Amino acid sequence: MSLLIGTTPTRTFDDSRRWVTEGTALLTGAIDGLAPADYDGDSQLPGWTRKHLLGHVAANADALGNLISWAETGVEKRMYASTEQRNADIEAAATRPAEELRAWYLRSAGELDAAMDRLTAEQWEHEIITAQLVTRQASDVPWMRAREVFIHAVDLGVGITFADLPDDFLLVLADEIRTKRGLSDDDLSGVSGTLPEVAAWLAGRPHGLVGAPELGPWL
């Protein structure tokens, strides 16, 4: 996997904002191509229909909006009330009508984008706490959202693949995942393939690599 070994790609804040825009457009276009009955079909995530997936992405925008509100006002506002409530909300979303889910997704995505536009440079530096209880700067929120919309556009199962995602995004994504998984250059030396296939493998998604060990789900 020479394309990743020994490299440390970087991302800027502007990169992340651009990827949110591009990823949201990709996912929205995929959703717009679904008939109401298609929402009940299986996504590429085990045990989840497209309704589960769409509810998750919509709820994620609302949750990240909470972090943006925290950065804007200084008043603590966590992403979710609890993991149990988050999971219950996703299950409830799977029972909602398709048009209702689509409207929620569009509203939440639009509100998150507007909220991010309001933040000042100083507010972007405020600390927030993620759902995984990791303290980060608010400026990381766009990257968190970019991952969600791009990867779940693939997970929707409508023909979008990792090859449809921007190379600069995939390089940063792959580097982040390998770091979080604790994979060294030695661990990756026996794996070779195109960047989209390698990124899909690292993310625990279907891929075309031969002989690559299964890593399990991520995100």
TrEMBL record:
Coiled coil: none
Domain spans labelled Mycothiol-dependent maleylpyruvate isomerase metal-binding: 22-156
Alphabetic keyword roster: Isomerase
Pfam families assigned: MDMPI_N (PF11716)
UniProt-listed SUPFAM superfamilies: DinB/YfiT-like putative metalloenzymes
GO molecular function: isomerase activity; metal ion binding
Entry superkingdom: Bacteria
Name listed for the protein in its UniProt record: Maleylpyruvate isomerase
Protein species of origin: Nocardioides luteus
Lineage of producing organism: Bacteria, Bacillati, Actinomycetota, Actinomycetes, Propionibacteriales
